[in-house]
Amino acid sequence: MEALRADMFEEICPSTLLPFRIGPDKWAALVIRCLEDGPRRFSELRVPLARVTPKVLTQSLRALERDGFVRRTEVTAPVRRVTYELTDLGRGLLAQLYVLCNWTAEHWDDLLDARES
Known about the structure:
The chain contains 6 helices and 2 strands. By secondary structure, the chain is mostly helical. It starts with 27 loop residues before the first helix and ends with a helix.
């Protein structure tokens, strides 16, 4: 599996203007996108989500786990390792997330104008 790109979510990016919330907070949709290709460790998620503090990322992951979108797996031997992956319920959100992202990209200028006014 390829590493997540640091510029996956640039600061000026339609994903940051997404006016819809999936899950408990504004970062949940971005976390779900990071997990779409398979399980990731916390440190891997931090690369594209560098603007999110570790505390807030932890809270988002816990809430997504509580709501059934993300599965947390901990392996203790030989070294403690924790991974996060989408559940079937979480995977079911991907198609809808793409629709929302496309809508946001199409209405990018309108969203920017609205936020500036």
